[in-house]
Amino acid sequence: MAYKPTGNKVGRPKIELTPEQWDIAHKLANIHCTKEEIASLTGISEDTLDRLIRERYDKTFSEWFTVASAGGKVSIRRLQFKKAMDGNVTMLIWLGKQWLGQRDKVENASGPSNGLLPEILGFMKSKVIGD
């Protein structure tokens, strides 16, 4: 803040976050709220949030957010793993595909090479035209 020659402060007072507001910001990042939402819910602008993070952590918002949001990802992963271990078949299949590279085996059952087409056409012909 600048000073007048008389020694009085000039300009707006510097905005700071209280420890409670920093706690809120961290909790919001943990659940992957956007920069706009974090700034709004802590009562500051996005530019001020950028400045405060730079001053306090010597990081950009993006760098800070990566660290601050990691706990939320870990919590989701823990809950997904617990669901799978409790026998949730859908979660077991999904995690198998995501983590283990498993995939559904899709066989090509169309085309005359499988021997079904002539049989199906013959059945349809007998029903429509009659034998």
Q: Summed up, what is this model?
A:
The protein has helices at 19-30, 35-42, 46-57, 61-68, 70-85, 89-100, 116-128, and strands spanning 2-3, 9-10.
Strand order of the largest sheet: 1-2
Q: What fraction of the residues are assigned to beta strands by DSSP? A: under 5%
Low-confidence stretches: none
Can you summarize the main beta sheet?
2 strands, antiparallel
Quote the distance from N terminus to C terminus: 99 Å
Total beta strands: 2
Shape: elongated
Order of secondary-structure elements: EEHHHHHHH
**Share of helix, binned:** 55-70%
Number of helices: 7
Please give the oligomerization state of what you see: single chain
**Average pLDDT taken over every residue:** 86
What would you report as the Rg, rounded to the nearest angstrom? 31 Å
The helix/strand class is mainly alpha
In words, what does this structure look like?
There is one protein chain. With 131 residues, the chain is mainly α. The chain has a domain of 67 residues. Strands 1-2 form a two-stranded antiparallel sheet. Helix 1 runs antiparallel to helix 2 and helix 5 packs across helix 6. The chain is elongated, with a radius of gyration of 31 Å. The model has no long low-confidence stretch (mean pLDDT 86).
Question: What keywords describe this structure?
Answer:
mainly alpha; two-stranded antiparallel ribbon; 131 residues
